[in-house]
């Protein structure tokens, strides 16, 4: 065999082996590697984190509890009999009864709906405000950025809970719909600044990319560039911030309702239940502990989920 034939045979034998040197199939030779994306890398990182699955499970559990409370309890939270005041657990009332003879567990389960609704809608409207303000400030820059940045600084300097107390004090209506809408409005108007800063930073980075310059050279207008090219890059970090903010909004609603300024009875909310349980804590601590535990686990779940997603999307932490 000539030297040329020897070299050719060696190359063919090497080509039939896999990337690690093990024998492979001919189909593996020359197969292009699939490009890795940021979302794919983030998902691979998230799948290996137990904290992500634990927090996601808790979030799904609370969401199901708010959407279909009948899956978790068959007792009516409005079925209150004074003769059962502070009675021990019995039947479906696994945590006993409160000072009004209501099922403590049933009221905690049904309280998830109002608390989660306020938190989710507050986060949604907060995200819309943050996207508009952040994209305008980051994309146009100049005096637009200067004015909107000063507005962000002013709103950021207003204490959220203190301002919410002052504004909600002006609401004289006891209508459940009005109170829910007022709490959502106040939290959204006062809580969008952090997300807006994150969006602004992402837009500033994205507008300098080559694909934005290419779209501008092809005649794309500002609206099209912002919608098609800038917005997708600003959504991911905004969603992470809003996931964490959702937990904070749920805690803020519970605080306002606890103080008697947010939601009011007959609406069932964790904050209202915690306040009622506090008043009669000496007779029985269960009506205080149960809704407090539900609230703490829900807020913690959203914050942990947001932290896990943020770490997965941050290349510096890899």
TrEMBL record:
Residue ranges spanning the membrane: these are 51-72, 116-140, 147-168, 180-199, 234-261, 288-309
Q: Which residues form the signal peptide?
A: none
Subcellular location per UniProt equals: Cell membrane
- Entry's Gene Ontology cellular component terms: plasma membrane
- In Gene Ontology terms, what is a biological process of this protein? transmembrane transport
Q: Any keyword Nucleotide-binding? A: no
Q: Does the keyword Metal-binding apply?
A: no
The UniProt keywords, alphabetically, are: Cell membrane, Membrane, Transmembrane, Transmembrane helix, Transport
Domain named ABC transmembrane type-1 is located at: 112-306
Q: How does it sit in the membrane?
A: Multi-pass membrane protein
Q: What is its main location?
A: membrane
| PROSITE patterns named in the record | ABC_TM1 (PS50928)
The record's Pfam families line, in alphabetical order, gives:
BPD_transp_1 (PF00528), OppC_N (PF12911)
Which family, according to the similarity comment?
Belongs to the binding-protein-dependent transport system permease family.
Which PANTHER family has this protein been placed in?
ABC TRANSPORTER PERMEASE PROTEIN (PTHR43386:SF6), OLIGOPEPTIDE TRANSPORT SYSTEM PERMEASE PROTEIN APPC (PTHR43386)
What name has this protein been given in UniProt?
ABC transporter permease
Q: What phylogenetic lineage does the species belong to?
A: Bacteria, Bacillati, Actinomycetota, Actinomycetes, Micromonosporales
